[in-house]
Amino acid sequence: MSVASTVARAQGGDEEAFAWLFDYYKASVGKHLYYLVSDWEVAYDLYQDTFIAVLKQFKKKAPIPNFQRWLYRVASNLAVDYLRHKNLLVFIPLPESETDDPEEYILSSFLAEEGHEDRVCETDCIRQALAEMSPQYRTCLLLQEVWGYSQNEIAEMLGITEKAVSSNVSRGRQQLRTAYLRVVEELADATKKGGRKN
Predict the structure, then answer these.
(1) What are the start-end ranges of the H helices in the chain?
(2) pLDDT at 109
């Protein structure tokens, strides 16, 4: 069953097809919503709201050229609206970033699919580090690096300049790296202490 054919069926009123789409995207979109809002319960509520929006769009019978990209945009907009409502996105003018060395960036592809034990451990450390980031940095960083939006699209979505997006992404990388290294160090220390007790 292809996504495109299922979307067409769901748009035609097929409830089973709609339920299939809801289940199919639950893990990926739900996970990315969690990365943005750092709360699983809120992320699931936003995911349900996302599919309420999908249902409304389907009822309009208007074509959706790229359903997955459109779906992610709806979800990200809902997450941004939630963060704004909670006053967690407070954008202020930022100076130019001093550096943006890609070798210093550790988000990479770890937020995509979990693999063996070491990768899962590393992914968990990144999740913890993300949760500790400033929401405005985390939002810009994830929208660009994980969700694949351009800085122009992010600026339009958040109502800020492209320069501010670029600065937030760069500083977000630095903040994430610092938090990640600290989390890894704390985990290593805890592991050593646990080993001494045995």
Answers:
(1) 3-11, 15-37, 40-59, 67-85, 117-131, 135-145, 151-158, 162-197
(2) 43
